[in-house]
């Protein structure tokens, strides 16, 4: 939902996201294919504080802020659906509108600004979440050294969300939740920084899956896309190990695989995106398998494209 203003109140809704392919290589000079997930959202709101005080005869000290900022969210915590960055991005949207800075700070510059703000709060993450939550829709992102050295950021390309096949979101309402993304990536990041050959090769392989997925979408080859998603999860599992991936995440992917569907983590853990390349009948079997295992399984609602990226 775009940022809008009514009766002096500015509201911005930002959706959660799904990392379809390439994650977690976005934090390792890789590439990602991500989509906006409209099933869940965070909303920030600025209340015009000055007007309220004026109406109630309250005097403000010099230099006081003339608005207050609040938020609400439906994004489940620590389910790998990018809840914290959705709140931060919605807050930034409100501030940009309030101070009339939307033209001065274009969409391409906003993901880094959100990431920097979250870093000050001790939240460790990559740019993928912030990019898709700024642009919406479906975006391919290239975070290679070549792209970042040329542009000073990643190279972003908006794709037509209509290219996507039906997708399914699998998650559990029960504990245990997903893990903090910073802790999940810490040991692998250290190996990558040290130049560990196996870690670097695996991350490069994961990054290549994003480009291959883009081609599969263009060609509408769902079995190819499903195989890429499965490979993405296998490589992630190889890198991080089952103890880090977690029993619940393994069980959600196993539920998808039990009916021949592909499943992979949407983020750092807590939710899985699944693709049924054989169509509706396979999807019904997926829903039944998830119900037996005690998991929610709902159709993915793709959020609208908010800006067009074409680097």
From TrEMBL:
Pfam families documented for this protein: GHMP_kinases_C, GHMP_kinases_N
Top-rank taxon: Eukaryota
Protein name: GHMP kinase N-terminal domain-containing protein
GHMP kinase C-terminal domain: residues covered: 217-289
Gene3D superfamilies linked to this entry: 3.30.230.120
InterPro entries in UniProt: GHMP_kinase_C_dom (IPR013750), GHMP_kinase_C_sf (IPR036554), GHMP_kinase_N_dom (IPR006204), Glucuronokinase-like (IPR053034), HddA/FKP (IPR001174), Ribosomal_Su5_D2-typ_SF (IPR020568)
Molecular function GO terms recorded: ATP binding; glucuronokinase activity
Domain GHMP kinase N-terminal, first and last residues per copy: 57-137
Keyword set, alphabetical order: ATP-binding, Nucleotide-binding
